[in-house]
Specification:
The chain is of the alpha/beta class. The protein folds into two domains: 16-185, Rossmann fold (3-Layer(aba) Sandwich), CATH 3.40.50.1970; 190-404, Dehydroquinate synthase-like - alpha domain (Dehydroquinate synthase-like, alpha domain). The protein has helices at 27-33, 45-48, 52-63, 79-92, 103-118, 190-208, 231-253, 258-278, 282-294, 298-313, 318-327, 337-354, 370-379, 382-385, 394-404, and strands spanning 16-19, 38-42, 66-70, 96-101, 127-128, 138-142, 154-159, 164-169, 177-180. The chain has a six-stranded parallel beta sheet with strand order 1-9-6-4-2-3, with helices on both faces. Strand 7 (154-159) and strand 8 form a beta hairpin. Bound molecules: nicotinamide-adenine-dinucleotide (NAD) and zinc ion. Residues 199, 202-203, 284, 298, 302 line the site of zinc ion (ZN).
């Protein structure tokens, strides 16, 4: 049933968001507020080997807590890697979980906090609203500028058996605190900066061009964590798009530029606030099987699909796409809406090129036989399809993959 049922919207965030250069130092205050005694820190081996780990360890030791660090989180984490985190976490028996890393680490932390509170097989939580209550107190500290996981209600893992990325979605997964310190992103290499930055752009653009909340097609009796385009999400999306247009290329090409890193850190968190309330749509639905098949980073898959999905969605809201063009820095004065809207696609395509991302899916290792299977899988992700402003048939998704191929 496709009748619109939502005429109100809500806004959710992390319990608190702390932002700014050196704000990592506020960790002590945060753990004091949470009455933390035993802190289980999750990170990955790359981050654990960086100099910034010394900065982090210094802050941790000042907080005077009993700390156990697990550095075995994986990029685009498999279930096995998350189960290892859960096993070690259980032995330590923490009262608070902290994710210190990119989206992969923060999502591992979220799922560890879930399992330590509610137990069970993680697959039982996949989908929307299957977590029965609050998870263990959770602090997220991003070291990439991309996913917005520090404020979002999502945790994503790779279902290796079924070759697809899957999500657990619940407002119980919003961290108690997000500590966003742009300094932590300085060591991000150009590829990670580019990929995660393009993910943030996808979040903002998909939220801003989503189906409007009064028309969100939620079947009667069903609840969703997404609700479609709405004025609060729009605010964050706009600011994120402007910041990315201004600073992503600079952050990629001159990683030590703290102003550019600060813009991108802000954009990523704002993108997270936009998408985790409005929703993400067809780009993400198409990335999940793509990532499952060729194991590219989430941001790269999204970044390469974005311009093609924008072209498919363009006619649904040319005004919104024209706005996006302007926010990305295009000169739109004197242009008609349709022309300005077209510029948004060119702009995203140029940005992708300027951050060094390839144009064609074949460059990621996709082959033609994969495309029909990926199209079927993408089409089956109903919760993302219904956020998209146009409802594509499998054949249309297949055509979009082919154009991108
Ligand atoms: N939960 C959400 O709301 C949400 C939203 C979007 C994406 N995701 C998921 O997040 C994951 C991607 O996260 P990501 O883009 O942040 O990348 P990531 O966490 O996978 O990290 C990518 C690589 O960069 C390294 N790295 C991270 N920070 C670094 C730093 N400061 N310096 C040097 N190297 C650093 C990592 O060790 C890793 O090797 C995917 O699994 C994706 O599906 C989650
Ligand atoms: Zn994403």
């Amino acid at each position: 049933m496709n009748s619109p049922t939502i005429t109100t919207f809500q806004f959710h965030s992390a319990g608190e968001v702390i932002f700014g250069v050196n704000c990592l130092r506020s960790l002590e205050d945060v753990t004091a507020r949470l009455k933390t005694k035993r802190l289980f820190v999750i990170t990955d081996k790359t981050i654990a080997a960086l100099e910034l780990m010394d900065y982090f360890r210094g802050v941790l030791s000042e907080a005077g807590l009993l700390v156990h660090v697990f550095d075995g989180a994986e990029p685009e984490p498999s279930l096995d890697s998350i189960h290892r985190s859960i096993k070690i976490g259980r032995q330590f028996s923490p009262d608070t979980i902290l994710g210190f890393g990119g989206g992969s680490v923060m999502d591992t932390a979220k799922l560890t906090a879930t399992a330590l509170q509610h137990g069970g097989n993680l697959r039982q939580y996949v989908g929307e609203n299957h977590i029965p209550g609050p998870v263990l107190p959770l602090i997220c500290i991003p070291t990439t500028a991309g996913t917005g996981s520090e404020v979002s209600q999502a945790a994503v893992f790779t279902d290796v058996e079924n070759q697809v990325k899957v999500s657990v979605l619940s407002n119980f997964l919003r961290p108690n605190a997000a500590i966003v310190d742009p300094l932590l992103t300085i060591p991000c290499p150009p590829t990670v900066t580019a990929d995660s930055g393009m993910d943030a752009l996808c979040h903002a653009i998909e939220a801003y061009t989503a189906i409007p909340y009064p028309r969100y097609p939620l079947p009667n009796g069903e609840k969703s964590v997404y609700q479609g385009k709405n004025p609060f999400a729009d605010l964050f999306a706009e600011k994120a798009i402007r910041l990315i247009g201004k600073s992503l290329v600079e952050a990629v090409t001159n990683g030590n530029n703290l102003d550019a890193r600060t813009d991108m850190a802000l954009a990523a968190t704002m993108g997270g606030l936009a998408f985790s309330n409005a929703g993400v749509a067809l780009v993400h639905a198409m990335e999940y099987p793509l990532g499952g098949f060729v194991h590219c980073s989430h941001g790269r898959g999204n970044g390469m699909l974005l311009e093609h999905v924008m072209r498919y969605n363009l006619s649904t809201n040319e005004q919104a796409f024209a706005q996006i063009a302007e926010w990305l820095g295009e000169k739109t004065t004197g242009l008609g809406v349709a022309e300005a809207a077209q510029l948004s696609i060119k702009s995203v395509s140029r940005l992708r090129e300027n951050v060094g991302m390839p144009a064609r899916l074949r460059d990621l290792g996709v082959n033609e036989e994969m495309i029909p299977v990926m199209a079927e899988k993408a089409a089956s992700i109903t919760r993302l399809m219904r956020v998209n402003p146009r409802s594509p048939q499998v054949q249309e998704i297949l055509e979009i993959y082919k154009t991108a191929y």
